[in-house]
Amino acid sequence: MRRRKTHRAAERARGGRDLVAHSEGTLKELEAQEKAWRKAHDAQKATLDEMTIFADQAARNMQSAFANFLFDRSTPACAGCSRASSTSFAA
User: Fold this and answer.
1) In the chain, N or C: fewer CB atoms in 10 Å?
2) Does the pLDDT at position 57 exceed 80?
3) What angle do CA 66, 71, 77 make, to 5 degrees?
4) Measured between alpha carbons, how far is 22 from 29 in angstroms, rounded to an integer?
5) Residues of the chain above pLDDT 70, percent
6) DSSP string of the chain?
7) Could you give the CA distance from residue 14 to residue 73 in angstroms, rounded to a whole number?
8) How far apart are CA 88 and CA 12, in angstroms?
9) Burial profile 4-31: b = 16 or more Cβ within 10 angstroms, e = fewer
C-alpha cells in the first residue's frame, strides 16, 4: 500500500515556495476585495445620508399636517370638539 504525500509534505519537498506564492496571491485578492467592499460601503452610506434628509423632511411635513388637522376649527371632525368644549366652559 502506497502512502500518499500530504499537502504539507509536498510543500516541504518543493521548498515551500508554492505555499508562499499562494499566500501572496490570496493576500492580494483579499486586499482587492476589501477595497471593493469599502467603495461599495461608501456609496451606500452616501445614499443613506441623502435618504435620511428626505425622511426627516417627510416626518416634519406629517407632523405639521397632523397639527393643522387637529387645531383647525373649520374641520368637520373638530367641529363637535369645539362645540363641546365651548358649552362646557360656558356652563
Assistant:
1) N
2) yes
3) 80
4) 11
5) 53
6) -PPPPPHHHHHHHTTTHHHHHHHHHHHHHHHHHHHHHHHHHHHHHHHHHHHHHHHHHHHHHHHHHHHHHHH-TTSHHHHHHHHHHHHHHH-
7) 90
8) 97
9) eeeeeeebeeeeeeeeeeeeeeeeeeee
